[in-house]
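Hey, resending since the last one bounced:
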Amino acid sequence: MPINTHNPNSLLPEPSARQVVLLVPVCNPGPRWHDFLQALRAQSLQPQLAVVIDSASDDGAPEAAEAAGLVVHRIDRAAFNHGTTRQQAVDQFAADADVVVFLTQDAVLADPMAVQYLVAALDDQQVGAAYGRQLPHANATPVAAHARWFNYPASSHSRNWADVPEFGIKTCFLSNSFAAYRVKALREVGGFPAQVILGEDMHLAARLLKAGHGICYQAQAAVYHSHNYSMLAEFRRYFDTGVFHAQHPWLVQDFGGAGREGLKFVRSEVAYMLKHAPWRLPNIACRTVLKALGYHLGRRHQALSQGMCSSLSMHKGYWA
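The structure tokens again:
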């Protein structure tokens, strides 16, 4: 069961006896990389193996990771794909592990117990995957801070297939920025999807749910992770989301569309800005229109040329 976030001192998890492997895809992570490595070094639960999958970084990140004791596995930048690369790393480095933990390069562990709390969610044998809370970085804009507040609340919860009528597509929400998977369950459903533009975590979570596994949100397991996206970047991200949904229509068919959740987000965002940053409301209105436009163009990307898709996309390498 998820740990009670309202009384954390009463339910501290025991250190895990399972074999835990940590995998981190990296490409020029920038100045936060030092903080990432320092926070990982301070964890109460140290993985038996920590591997950086580096896509030809040239900013010194691989060397810093090796100096910190991590294994660095180098791949060509053009070979990276959100789903394929992760599954190849699982097959190569975590095939014999009990639990595989994923972090992204810009997700800084917020507490020395973060990994231990996340892995503890898998003590419940019904849980196939767990993901942690994301807190905004200190420089997060109100827009970025609200997105974290909306998607990552302070209380833990679990979801299973029976929750789909109530929560729709949010039932299979999960983020690989900080997530742990039971390797046996991952293998049972065929692992990460191949050649996806994004959403490999949601795709896998949906298949885990359909196979009878639960998804746990572990609020005490926290990282600092947020993006100050420009309006153009938001448009491109939602274009890619539309492409993802168009290419995997079973997600919408089985879990429902994103419209209901999108409306809830907009209402919450307006209320948040009225309280914290009312001068941002015109910006929010423009962002909402651009996100909707990007998503609908993405859903119809097959009518566009590959060059046009690349120009509209955040993940341009996908179209190469």
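DSSP finds 13 helices and nine strands in the chain.

Sorry for the duplicate.
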